[in-house]
Design goal:
Blueprint lengths: L3 E2 L1 H19 L4 H32 L3 E5 L3 E3 L4 E9 L5 E7 L5 E4 L3 E5 L3 E11 L3 E5 L2 E6 L5 E7 L3 E6 L3 H12 L18 E7 L11 H7 L3 E6 L5 E7 L17 H18 L3 E7 L8 E5 L2 H11 L11 H11 L5 E6 L6 H11 L4 E7 L2 H7 L6 H25 L6 E3 L1 H18 L3
Parallel strand pairs: 3-12, 15-16, 15-18, 18-19, 19-20
Antiparallel strand pairs: 1-11, 2-4, 4-8, 5-7, 5-10, 6-8, 9-12, 10-11, 13-14, 16-17
Helix pairs in contact: 1-2, 5-6, 5-11, 7-8, 8-10, 9-10
Length: 450
C-alpha cells in the first residue's frame, strides 16, 4: 500500500509554510525566502527518503504477524470480547494505530487503538463487540497504520485472515431455564410445576406404596411377590410430537423500539420457540418446524426429531431466519403441515394476529384441528397496554385510552371467535410468550390431550 505522510511530517510542512509567511511579512526578500524554503524541503525529502529505505528494509526482513481470536458463534445482543495478538520479530520497536474490519451489523467499543510493539516481542489487545442482528457475520482483515522508524511516514498494512462466524438467538433464556429447573425454582420466571407422584399416562416404574398413593395403581401381582404393597408409577407420555408453524411474514417485523437489541416480535417468537423446543426435547418428545410467510421458495422445513443434538440442529436451521415483507398465507401453511405430517401432534402457530386476519386464520385452524391438537400463540403490542394505562388528565389522553380499549376489545373478540374460545391459545405481550408457551405445553402433557 502507498505510504502516507505522518502527522509529524505534516506539522513540519505547516511550520515551514508559516515561517515563510512570517518572513515575508517582516520584509525579507522573496528570493531569499524561496531559496531557504527549497533548501529545507530538499533536506526534508532526503531525510524522508532515507527513512523510507531503512524502514522498508527492516520491515521486509522481519514482517509483522497478527491473528484474531473470536468465538465461531455469538449470541444476539451479548457483549463478546475479541482479542488480537500481534508479533513483532524485528530488532526495533514499532508504533502503530490498529483498527479491525468489524461486520457492519455489530457495534463495538475499544477501536481504534494506538499500540507499541516491543522489539522481538508480542502484544495483545482486546475490544468488545455486540451483535445487533442474527445470521452469518464476517470480520475482514486487521488494519494497521505502522509508523516508520524515524516517524516521517506511515505504512498501511492488512494482517491476519478474514473469518466467518454465526450470530444465534440469545441463549440466556435457555441457560436460565436449565439452571432454575436444576434448582427447582422455575416459579421465578412464571413457569408452573406440578409435584405429583405417579401422574401421567405412561408407565415408568414400580415402587413401594406410600401414604397418599392411589389405591387403583397398586400392582397386586408384584405385591404378592414382594410381600408388601407395590404401586405403579406413571409419567407424562413421551415420544410425542410438537410442531411449530412460525410466521415469517410482514406482521412479525413489528419492533416497538423500546427494548434491547433483538426486540422485534419475530426475535421474541424465535426465542420462545427455542425455549419450548428445549423443554419438549428434555421431556423426550420430537420437535419440528415449518415456516410460512417467507418469499417464494425460501420456506424452511425442519423435520421432527428428538435428542440433545436436535436443539443444536434446530438453532443452525433457524439462526439466520428474518421476517419478510410478504403476506402470510395461513391456509397454505395449514395444508402444507397436513400434507407432510399425518401423525397427530401438538401444533403451535406463532404469529401476530389482527382482527382483519380472522377470515383467513379461522378455516386454517379448523383444518389443522381435524387431526392435530392446535393452538395459536399471538403477540400483542405492548404499546396498547401503555396507552390504556395512561392517566386521564387531558382530553387527548382520554381519546387515546378509549381508542386503545376499543382496539384491544375488537382484537380480543376476534381472537376468541377464531380460536373458538380455546383455553390453550394465547394472546400475550412478547415478554410473556416463552413462559406462557411452556405452561401450555405442561398443561397438555399433564392432561394427556395428545
Amino acid at each position: 500500500m502507498t505510504p502516507l505522510p505522518s502527522r509529524h511530517c505534516v506539522q513540519a510542512l505547516a511550520l515551514l509554510a508559516a515561517a515563510c509567511g512570517i518572513a515575508l511579512l517582516l520584509g525579507a526578500p522573496p528570493p531569499w525566502v524561496a531559496q531557504a524554503a527549497a533548501a529545507l524541503l530538499v533536506a526534508g525529502l532526503a531525510w524522508l527518503l532515507r527513512d523510507v529505505l531503512i524502514s522498508r528494509r527492516a520491515w521486509y526482513a522481519a514482517p509483522l504477524r497478527a491473528r484474531r481470536l473470536v468465538p465461531h458463534a455469538l449470541a444476539l445482543g451479548v457483549p463478546t470480547q475479541v482479542r488480537i495478538e500481534i508479533e513483532n520479530p524485528a530488532a526495533q520497536p514499532c508504533v502503530a494505530e490498529l483498527f479491525d474490519e468489524v461486520d457492519p451489523r455489530f457495534s463495538f467499543d475499544g477501536l481504534p487503538q494506538r499500540i507499541m510493539l516491543p522489539a522481538r516481542g508480542r502484544f495483545e489487545l482486546a475490544y468488545t463487540v455486540i451483535a445487533r442482528q442474527r445470521g452469518p457475520a464476517r470480520f475482514g482483515r486487521i488494519q494497521l497504520r505502522r509508523h516508520s522508524l524515524a516517524g516521517s511516514f506511515e505504512q498501511p498494512l492488512a494482517l491476519g485472515q478474514p473469518c466467518e462466524l454465526r450470530v444465534y438467538p440469545n441463549f440466556a433464556a435457555l441457560t436460565r431455564y436449565a439452571w432454575l429447573a436444576g434448582d427447582r425454582r422455575l416459579a421465578q420466571i412464571g413457569i408452573k410445576t406440578y409435584a405429583q407422584r405417579g401422574g401421567g399416562t405412561e408407565f415408568r416404574q414400580l415402587s413401594e406404596y406410600r401414604a397418599g398413593d392411589p389405591v387403583r395403581h397398586i400392582d397386586w401381582k408384584a405385591t404378592l411377590r414382594q410381600g408388601k404393597p407395590v404401586v405403579r408409577e406413571f409419567q407424562d407420555e413421551r415420544d410425542q410430537r410438537v410442531l411449530f408453524l412460525l410466521d415469517c411474514g410482514r406482521r412479525m417485523r413489528a419492533d416497538e423500539g423500546a427494548r434491547e437489541i433483538g426486540g422485534s416480535h419475530f426475535d421474541d417468537a424465535l426465542n420462545a420457540l427455542m425455549l419450548l423446543a428445549c423443554v419438549a426435547l428434555k421431556e423426550g418428545d420430537e420437535v419440528g418446524v415449518i415456516t410460512f410467510g417467507n418469499p417464494p421458495g425460501l420456506a424452511r422445513h425442519f423435520a421432527p426429531r428428538k435428542g440433545r443434538a436436535a436443539l443444536d440442529a434446530l438453532m443452525n436451521a433457524l439462526y439466520d431466519l428474518q421476517p419478510s415483507a410478504t403476506h402470510s398465507d395461513y391456509a397454505a401453511a395449514a395444508h402444507e403441515l397436513m400434507r407432510t405430517h399425518p401423525r397427530r401432534a401438538l401444533v403451535i402457530m406463532l404469529t401476530n394476529f389482527r382482527d382483519e386476519d380472522a377470515d383467513e386464520l379461522q378455516p386454517a385452524l379448523q383444518l389443522l384441528r381435524r387431526r392435530h391438537l392446535s393452538l395459536v400463540a399471538s403477540l400483542r403490542e405492548r404499546v396498547l397496554g401503555h396507552l390504556a394505562a395512561q392517566p386521564l388528565d387531558t382530553p387527548r389522553r382520554g381519546v387515546e385510552v378509549a381508542a386503545a380499549h376499543l382496539f384491544e376489545q375488537s382484537r380480543r373478540d376476534a381472537f376468541a371467535r377464531v380460536t373458538g374460545g380455546d383455553a390453550l391459545s394465547i394472546d400475550v405481550e412478547p415478554a410473556q410468550l416463552a413462559t406462557a408457551l411452556v405452561n401450555r405445553y405442561h398443561a397438555v402433557k399433564r392432561a394427556g390431550l395428545l
